[in-house]
Amino acid sequence: MKETPTGTPVGVDDPYDHAGRCDHLTDEGKCRFAFDHPEQDPEFARERRREDLRCPAADPDGEASCASKKSGGTASGDWDWASCPHYRCRKRDRKCVRCGLEERRMAHSDERPLLEEHHLSYPGERGSQSNPTPSDDAGEGETLGHEITVYLCRWCHAKVHKSWARIDDDANPDPEAIAETEDRRSREQSETGFESAAERFHADDE
Fold it and tell me: How far apart are CA 36 and CA 45, in angstroms?
């Protein structure tokens, strides 16, 4: 299993097995990075422009092509996700990928979120160090080559880093996580309940 720079497991054998479409990929299968940031990698941008900004690791629908799912691509020159120097995949679904717990944020509150971002890839692995991105999971000053992240609830996050739990385990939410979620849900409902001014003032008078 892959490990962090400090030696704790990340819950996967190969981060690219859990990598989805690139954040820079448009719905038309084009590379947004080459269009928006050509100055950061001029050679990469020129090559993409010669092919009308087509992403060589995705089909026209914007998903991973058959070639991109194979290590090394094909004889036609198509890439896999790991071949692209600017590939980045940050999952946006606000629920734990391991147990399915959904986030419940309290407005105007600094309470700790139920979900935390979890990095699957670290420096020195497959990918390029161009376009590095700081990582909360990595040590201070370290950067990621390819940023591949998912969301884990803080209970699953601890289990993954402190044991050999995997992110694809068939797991249910921790009892403490359920209790925390229910507490937040009940507070949300009480805050949205209607109370007339007369009721409010009458309560103050008492």
Answer: 9
Domain boundaries of the chain, sorted by first residue: 20-86, 89-206
Sign, CA dihedral 48-51-52-58, equals negative
Separation of alpha carbons 87 and 134, rounded Å: 15
Does 206 have pLDDT greater than 60?
no
pTM of the model: 0.71
pLDDT at position 201 is: 61
Per-residue pLDDT at 50 exceeds 50: yes
Residue 42 CA to residue 59 CA, distance in Å, equals 24
Q: How many Å apart are CA 116 and CA 122, to the nearest integer?
A: 17
What is the sign, positive or negative, of the torsion defined by CA atoms of 76, 127, 95, 26? negative
